Amino acid sequence: MREAGLDLPDAATCSVLGLRPETLQQVWLDNPQIRTTHLPATAEAPPGYAFRKLRALMADLGDRAALASRAFQISEWARTHKYCGVCTTPMQPVGHEFCMRCPACGMSAYPRISPAMMVLVRKGDSILLARHATYATARHTALAGFVEAGESIEDAIHREVMEEVGLRVDNLRYFGSQSWPFPHSLMIAFTAEYSGGELRLQADEIAEARWYGPGDALPEIPMRESIAGSLVRANLPAGIRS
């Protein structure tokens, strides 16, 4: 992006990087002007531009965040499906849809979407917030995890809550969803009511978890542009100190 502002590179800037428009992946089939691609980690930004991390930009992009999310996921799909996963033949794009097809064995690959559940557990006038162990600077947030093969979203919620914090929940209520391009998740958020158990943390997943209620100081929570930030803010207990 431009060093000053949030403008994206145009075709002329892409040419400086050695990118021709026909080599870039379309983000929308009906709009050839918007294209995306991956660059090697050794690439240098053209004068006046700088590479910036997408996660750090999500709050600044506003209405363009959804476009950036799609562009990232489409480019990741194109990058990781250059060759057939069955017979290793170079894949060919199908013109009328987002599909890579093998000309040798016919295997088709579509952009991957990985569903992940998110759940904010409530207990009376308190909510459970956790800090994940895999991120050194992680904020306190709702519990989350990927849906496994053969599971429903509801199954995944019960399993993840029990695995990560040792609690049982019921009264699951759908809250909302968000495409999350790290790298290709669909976050599906719920609230749930505590129904039993004592906090017991899964050490390799959860660094800290506790109930927050009236009079408690609210820890740092996710940005409001994320589904996690929206979920937590929509369920803050009355009297919590922010």
Structure description:
Residues 111-234 form the Nudix hydrolase domain. This is NAD(+) diphosphatase. Belongs to the Nudix hydrolase family. NudC subfamily. Its cofactor is Mg(2+); Zn(2+). By secondary structure, this protein is an alpha+beta fold. It folds into three domains: 1-80, no CATH class; 82-111, no CATH class; 114-234, Alpha-Beta Complex (Nucleoside Triphosphate Pyrophosphohydrolase). 21% of the residues lie in helices and 29% in strands. The chain has five helices and eleven strands; from the N terminus they run αββααββββββαβββα. The strands form three sheets. Strands 6, 7, 8, 9, 10 and 11 form a six-stranded mixed β-sheet that branches. It has a three-stranded antiparallel β-sheet with strand order 3-4-5, with no helix packed on it. The protein has a two-stranded antiparallel ribbon with strand order 1-2. A hairpin with a 4-residue loop joins strand 9 (168-180) and strand 10. The chain is globular and about 60 Å long. The model has no long low-confidence stretch (mean pLDDT 93).
Give the SSE map:
Elements: H1 11-16, E1 25-28, E2 31-36, H2 54-61, H3 65-80, E3 92-93, E4 100-101, E5 108-109, E6 114-123, E7 126-132, E8 143-146, H4 153-165, E9 168-180, E10 185-196, E11 206-212, H5 227-234
Parallel strand pairs: 6-10
Antiparallel strand pairs: 1-2, 3-4, 4-5, 6-7, 6-8, 7-11, 9-10
